[in-house]
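Exercise 7. Given the encoded structure of a 346-residue chain, write a plausible sequence.
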């Protein structure tokens, strides 16, 4: 019976005590195919370290990376009719909404929050690409309008992180009408003199690109983000021409004037805070000013001294030029006098 104790029982115990390994511990890089450990991605804000590929993130992660100490207040989502048209394709629209809500924990694609970003209080809205590809419907439109009106009420800048597949077809004309409605809310921000900054993330397409996502005072894009109205294949079939590779990517659009800047995810918070302070004429908080490195202080000091140094240099050049002219004039006068003296002697 010894073989039962030494072989069989240990194998049974190991089989019963074996733990299932989660399937999402390793994530494949879409660019290089490299497998990246999920902890490394989390610590790097879901930017693949080697290829710099920016992966899609949800609304909670956006707010966590944006607001100071990940401290923010979510605005309550407005109530709308879930399925006004009783739409059905392969499955009921109400079922699709239920699945998306179960997956993300949100009522709809747009979440709005308020909090401090480097000490500056602002309002931010995020279109979650995990909720039906961030498509625009009645609930999303109402959330955006509510957020913009809250920004006008509290006199704060408004930041939009766009990520959308366009208008939600299951709501038809009711979805399309959200574009002009949100555009009017953008105009209210303008009339109140408040900055409206749009961060274009992957993907921003369809009617969202054709409306409020391109009405910002400044348009920032994450590296490699897909931005456009129609897909590349549809455009090529329509115009019967081959389009350049990457013509709807952030870098191409920046080179051709559609995007103001392409900013790495790690630098977004700093850039947004700097732009908001510029537009609102707000000084840098003292605690942040003290965090400047000695190199930054030296650069700022050098920049401040440039005009004085330039003026001094110009003065020195002018003085040296005047001295040289005086020497030449004196030398010429001496030569003329010596010539006259020689003539008299003759």
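Solution.
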């Amino acid at each position: 019976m010894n073989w039962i104790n030494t072989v069989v029982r240990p194998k049974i115990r190991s089989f019963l005590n074996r733990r299932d390994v989660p399937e999402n511990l390793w994530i494949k890089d879409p660019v290089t195919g490299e497998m990246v450990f999920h902890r490394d991605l989390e610590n790097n804000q879901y930017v693949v370290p080697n290829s710099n590929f920016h992966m899609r993130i949800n609304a909670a992660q956006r707010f966590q990376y944006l607001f100071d100490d990940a401290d923010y207040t979510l605005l309550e989502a407005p109530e709308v009719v879930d399925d006004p048209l009783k739409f059905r394709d392969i499955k009921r629209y109400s079922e699709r909404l239920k699945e998306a809500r179960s997956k993300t924990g949100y009522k709809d694609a747009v979440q709005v929050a308020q909090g401090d970003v480097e000490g500056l209080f602002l309002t931010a809205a995020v279109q979650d690409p995990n909720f039906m590809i961030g498509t625009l419907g009645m609930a999303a439109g109402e959330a955006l309008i509510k957020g913009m009106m809250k920004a006008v009420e509290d006199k704060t800048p408004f930041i939009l992180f766009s990520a959308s597949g366009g208008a939600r077809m299951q709501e038809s004309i009711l979805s399309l009408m959200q574009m002009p409605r949100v555009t009017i809310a953008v105009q209210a921000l303008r009339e109140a003199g408040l900055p409206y900054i749009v961060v274009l993330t992957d993907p921003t397409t369809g009617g969202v690109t054709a409306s409020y996502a391109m009405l910002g005072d400044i348009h920032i894009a994450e590296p490699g983000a897909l931005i456009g109205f129609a897909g590349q294949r549809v455009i090529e079939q329509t115009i019967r021409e081959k389009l350049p590779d990457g013509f709807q990517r952030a870098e191409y659009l920046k080179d051709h004037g559609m995007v103001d800047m392409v900013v790495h995810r790690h630098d977004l918070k700093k850039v947004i805070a700097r732009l908001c302070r510029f537009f609102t004429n707000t000084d840098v908080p003292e605690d942040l000013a003290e965090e400047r490195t000695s190199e930054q202080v030296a650069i700022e000091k050098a920049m401040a001294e440039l005009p004085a140094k330039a003026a001094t240099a110009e003065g020195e050049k002018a003085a040296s030029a005047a001295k040289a002219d005086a020497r030449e004039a004196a030398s010429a006068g001496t030569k003329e006098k010596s010539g006259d003296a020689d003539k008299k002697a003759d």
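Remark. The chain has a mean pLDDT of 84. Students should compare their own answers with the one above.
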